[in-house]
Amino acid sequence: MSELRELILKEYSKDHSVFIAEVLEKKTSLIPELLQIIYLEEEPVSRRAAWSLRTLFDASPKTLNPFIDDIISHLGRIKSPPILRALIAIISKTQIDEKWHGFFLQYTANLILDRKTEIAVKAFSMDIFFQIAKTQTELFNELEQMIEHIYPESSKGIQNKCRNLLKWMEKIRAKN
Fold first, then answer.
1. b/e for 61-94, b at 16 or more Cβ within 10 A?
2. Does residue 44 have a cis peptide bond before it, meaning omega lies within 30 degrees of 0?
3. How far apart are CA 40 and CA 132, in angstroms?
4. Which of 140, 142, 146 is closest to 167 using CA atoms?
5. What is the pLDDT of residue 60?
6. 90 domain residue, yes or no
7. Range of the structural domain that residue 156 is part of
8. Do residue 121 and residue 152 come from a single domain?
9. C-alpha separations of 133 from 59, 116, 136, 142 in Å
């Protein structure tokens, strides 16, 4: 773990994050080691590792498919907002296996309703909840109640996200 750790700590820049992502894409056997660094939540190495993981996902989403279950299984233990933001962003852009639906409905609802949740984490959590609700449209009612609850005190960005989700739910309901 020390070589990858040293590489991560060598520099802090977008270019370096891209470089690490490229290394990981070529040598996917390093991804479990990167994940272990992330799960330790040690500053600054874990945060930088999470940034590199997200950069890798953005460039090559399928590369992380074998690791999604592992990432999900660790989410409940993550306390660091930047690490949580990176992992939730990745999950929000993947197809969530049905076996995780119950976990994510509870987990994301808690994040959505918690006033202390970062704006980006809240937005990605809403995306995840909506993704699951599209497969079980009766959950739209629950999402609408959460939106109604958080909307008045939310940032402009979250209010915009709420309006868009309400429009999408309306369109889906109209088709059914």
1. eebbeebbeebbeebeebebebbbbbbbbbbbeb
2. yes
3. 29
4. 140
5. 97
6. no
7. 95-176
8. yes
9. 27, 24, 5, 9
In this structure, the answer to whether residues 108 and 76 fall within a common structural domain is no
Q: How confident is the model at residue 2 (pLDDT cuts 50, 70, 90)?
A: confident
| Encoded tokens for 75 | 């989410």
Which secondary-structure segment (H or E) carries 21?
helix 14-26
Q: What is the pTM of this model?
A: 0.94
Token pair listed for 136: 């079980």
Query: Is the N-terminal amide bond of 66 cis, ω within 30° of 0?
Result: no
User: Within 10 A of 11 (CB to CB), how many other CB atoms are there?
Assistant: 12
22 class by beta-carbon count within 10 Å (0-12 exposed, 13-18 middle, 19+ buried): middle
Q: Considering 44, 66, 85, which residue would you say is the last residue of a domain?
A: 85
Amino acid type, 7:
L
Sort residue 166 into left (φ over 0), alpha (ψ -120 to 50) or beta: alpha
